[in-house]
Every structure is written in structure tokens, then in C-alpha cells.
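# step 3/5: fold
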Amino acid sequence: MSHDPVPDRAPSNPVAVDQDADQNTGQSTGHDTGQSTDQGKAAPQRPPGRRRRRFSVERGWFPPLGKAGKIALVVSLLTGALTHGYHLFRYPLYLTDEGIYMQRAWSLVRETSLSPYTYDYDHAPAGWITLAGWVFPLPKQFETFGNAINTGRFLMLLVHVASVYLLFEITRRLSGSVLAATVAAFFFNVSPIAVYYQRQVLLDNLMMFWLLLSLFVLLRRETTIRSVFGGGVALGLALITKENAIFFVPSFIYLLYRRIKKSPSHRFLRTLWPFAAAAPIGAYVTYALLKNELLPSSFDFDLNNPPADHVSLLYTLWWQLNRSQGNLLSHNGLLYTSWLMRDSFMLICGFAAMLLCLWWGLRDRQRNLGYLIVGTLAFGYTFYLLRGSVVLDFYVTPLIPMFAMSIGMAVDRLLKASFKNRFLHGAHSLVRVGVPSLVAVVLLMSPSSGYLVHTNTEGVVQIADQYQSKINLTQMQHAQIAWVRKHVPANSRIIMDDDLWGELHDVRPFYPYAHSHWNAASDPDVRDKLFKKRWQNIDYIILSNKMRKSMATNNADGRENWILKALQNSDQVWSDTKGNIKLEIYRVQ
């Protein structure tokens, strides 16, 4: 079912012959071959060693990987395993959301339900279904790598290495260049913001794996029924892993259109792909429908009066679409307070490279399809972040591979343009290898970049936090759990954060009455039946880092007043502080 010609067959469309051959093959136009010119003179033949390889994203003509490409790919895979694997269980601090996703995976494995609490469709479930599928066959399940979050983080390492392969091949096929793929993989592996977020158990990392897999399948040499169906299913899995994957869909649709438009079976393929993508989504909607949780009661979407009798998938989606947080570009937004502080080089250069790819792609969509796809993928998600809705710290994660691909392809094209300069033409090979290598060394060794070394708060240059062997942030949380097990009775009623949930519910002695402040304030079974919304019914409060701030943020409607009052009527019995990180335990009077 392929529409692609065999590699040595010339295209039948004369316009396509002139465009592709002039740019990529050097075969079809009179000035590129030995054909006679108007004067009857033969043009000089192109030396065999200088002949360009045939390349077209639309037709699936991708240069072979070659020996150098295989070496670059292996180095990229090993680099990704090293940068993301070293210090994996020590840095960064366990995150609330990591605990939530492992908690829901625990519920699937132990209780065969999507959540140990009321599942309110805040996120589609494919992410923690994947986590549960990873944990279930392991010898010690959630405790295989020490605790639940560590076990999830090891899966994130495997996902990252697989994503490096996909990113490398996608970039190579969209650009026709091993150099572009190598540069993209370098930033994807070494960027501090990438290392920080891609180690964590986040739905965003799993979503990006499925998106990259879908893109990789659509970029096979031959567009077959199997590749179109597989690409659609992978995209559907990305959408039910995290819904914001929808901002990448327009680029996928355009790529599919360009790849199948000359296929005899293009009508069938353009129907098959959305059907395959809709299949996982349909299963999710059917689940809600069977539980009578698709629509809110009386079809009431009033955001000021949430449905009281049951949760609703469509009501939750409507609520999410109407959330607003303000401008991301404000002085107190995440862009300035978090993201640029972690990796300004990657974000600034990635944004500039995205604009270049968009410009090149829109200027000549026929020849520069790869640039257009990469540019629109990055632009679509940038628009999502800037549109003004609620944005959390780790929402930047899916932008990292898109910016990495943009940088790789922009660097490759700019270097090729520089080779045409008469001063650099003679040093073609040296510059091609030397310039990227020099830039990489500068990035790695410069304290201003923060890639391998950085300047700490005391003005001392040291190894970056993600590679600093003396930094063991998660040890603070292990010490917090150890104190609880030693001093707190198992039947105590505890308010805590979700990062400790797995430790207290899956390891003996179990703490069945330990719940996060989120669920204690919103889930009726916990709030009204266990605690009865009275601060006197709380025995201990275990504070994670910044949990006080989270409680205040979540208390806009006063739902956590009774928990905050318990904190006011309690005594600190344990604390640990490192830098700006502080963990505490309080006994309620």
C-alpha cells in the first residue's frame, strides 16, 4: 500500500523532478548533469564524491544512517543514559505529582481502580496505566528500586533513552542530516531543564514518548496501512496520557496529508489515521459513559456550582478550558522565576531556532517540509503555554524536544550556508566537525550555562546540582519517613503531601489514615467521614517543601481552613533544612 517510488526511480511529476532534483539530487536540471545546453556544450559532470544524496521528506527519501550516523546515535543514547541516570534517585526532590501518579498506579495494581479516591477525570488515565503495567511484573513491584517514586523514575530513564532514539531519527529524517540529529540529541540529553524534569515521574514525559513514536512511524520510508494505523494509535495514546497533546495535532495532520496525497489509497489512509487516533479516546469516553460520568447532572455546566451527585468528564474538561492564571510573561511568571533560571540558553536559542524553522518552512513548503513540521510543532505548544490558562512548573517539559529539534536543524542549515563562504569552503570538513564540538565544549564547561558546572549562591563555581554527588535531596524525605515510622502510631490520622503516599500505604506498617491535604479538603469520603472537617480529628501534619504555600493557594474558597487551624494548634516535632528546602512534622495538640 505504498505510494513511494523505489529509491532509484525518478518522480513522474515534472515539476517535482525539477524542484527535488535541483535541491537534493543534482540529477535532473541541465546545469547539474551532463545534458546539452542551448549552446550545444556539455556541462561539467559533478565529481562522484561530491554528488548529493537524494532526500525528500514527502516521498520518504531519507539518506542512509551510515557508519558515522550509527556512532553518533550510540553516543547520544549513552549520553542520555548517563546524564539522566546519574543521581536519579537523589535529585531532584520527590514531587507532589510524582506521588499522585504512582498512587494511582498503586490503586490499579492493588485495587483495580483508577484512583484510591474519587476519580474526577482531572487527567486521562493512560499515564498511570503505563506505570501500573511497568510495576506489576517487577519482583518487588513498587519497592523494586527502593520506593514507588524511584521505581517510576527508573521507567522515566528507559523512556528517555527510547525517546533519544526517536528524536535522533525524526530529526535526521526531517533534515536529512546526522549533524542536525546529533545536536538535537545533545540538547535533549544535557540541558539542565531537560535533566530536571525528564527524570521525574510526569505524564508529560510519557506523552512525549507516544508523540515521538507517532511522528517516527509517520516518517517511515514507505507510508503503509500499518504505519498510518500505528501512528494514529500512538497519537491517540498521547492524547489520553495528557490532553494538551492536542496542540501538536495540526502538524501531524499536515505531515500525513503531504505524505499520502499522491498515494492511490490516500482516501482510505486519511480516514484510517483519525479512526486509529480516536480509538483510545473512544475507550476513555466509553468508560465514563458506562459509569454515567460523561455528562454532568441536568446537563449543567455552571462553573460556580459543580455537580454534587457525581463527577463528569465533560464538566471537568470545560472547567479546565476556562481556568485562567494570568500572563506567563509577567515578572512573577514561571518563565522568569523558574524556567529561564534553569536553562536560559536552551529556551532563548530554541525560541529563535523555532522562528527560523517557521520562516524557512513557510517560505518554501515544498522543499522545506521538515523545517515547517518542526517549527509548527514547537509553535503549537508555545502557543499553549502563552495562551493565559493555568500553567504548572513542569508544563514546559514537552517543549524541550521541540526546541532541541529546532536548534539541531537550524544549526545544521546555518553551518551549511557558511560552507558556501569562499573563506570557509576549503575548510569544509574541519569546520563541520570543529565548530559544533567547540560550541558543545563551551556549553558544557561555562558556568554561565549551568550545563556541567554553575556558580552557587556563594559565588563558588561547582558541579551542577544534577551531577553533584554531595547533593542528596531525597534523603531528607527518607529521613522524614523514618521518623514517622519510629514515632507515629499506624492508626494516626495524618495530613501530608502526595509524595509520601506510596511509602505510607505500600510498606508495613501501613498508615491507612494518611491522606494528602488535597484529598482531605475535597474528597467527601475523607473530608466528611474520616476527619469530619474538624481540626481536632487530625493527629499529625507532615509538611513537604512548599506545602504551606500549596495549602494557601488551594484555599481560595476556604476549603482548607480547618487544616490550617490544626497547623496553628500544633507543635513542631521534627524538621530538616537544606538551602531553601525545608521539611517539617507537627503534632496537633
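# step 4/5: annotate
The radius of gyration is 27 Å.
# step 5/5: archive (pending)
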